[in-house]
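WARN retry 2 of 3 for item q-0093 after timeout on previous attempt; input resubmitted unchanged.
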Amino acid sequence: MKIALATICPDSRQRAFLGIVRPTWEAYAKRHDLPIIVVENPPHPENVFWGKYFALTLPEFAKYDAVIALDNDILVNPHSPLVTEDWDGSKIGIADERQQFDWDDAFVAQYYSHYEHEIPARVTHVGILNTGVLLYTRAHLPFFEAVHARWVEWRDRATAATRETDSFKYANDQPHVSLALQVADRAKILPPAYNRLWWSWYRQRGTLPWRAFQGYAKASSLFEEFAPRALASAFARPGARAIERGLSECHFLHVAGSKSPIWLFAHRSSA
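OK item q-0093 returned
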């Protein structure tokens, strides 16, 4: 099975994130002999989040059977094993956030209810599958096409004003894909180390209170806009060391949500 590492970068902001994390990807890709393909014009441009599910429909993936699709806010530990090592391609590889958080069934049900989904009674112990790391083959494209069509139908039932008022809800692909995978029993759950959420790691292992670290990361990203490089780096380096520590304790570290910590990582000692 020929596999490519793929990501979606449709604009300059997304490419800036990738520019910071990419050296970690390149070291990993070189070690495992993987090509890296960056998609700047994704399928379904009306909602770029959906592009990751359809990379194999693009000409540049014609010679590949499968993809490791990564969000561009993920840092990769170059020493980690190949994520596809225990994946046979029969199911879609994806990590479950519930393995990192103490969420009960009521929280999970509320999560899906916000997106107007009810969990079928036959599906037990439902997780919240994080689509930031995704392994799939050409055989899975019809599944994604069906889920996307249902999402479009659901989104279009809401008025334009409603969609504008709650834009995140009506742009978010993850809950729809997550539940569909579990209802159809199409998911191969990856170990949490292959999609370790930064904010989960930091709350368990960090030194400052989480909100204090968020404020520090944001201040650092603003400070570097006008401060000399050496001064900005000195200010950011303690945060970069925390992120390096997190990365050393997992395979893929996912800086989901607030992106300020990515700018901290740009000031690591080896940069």
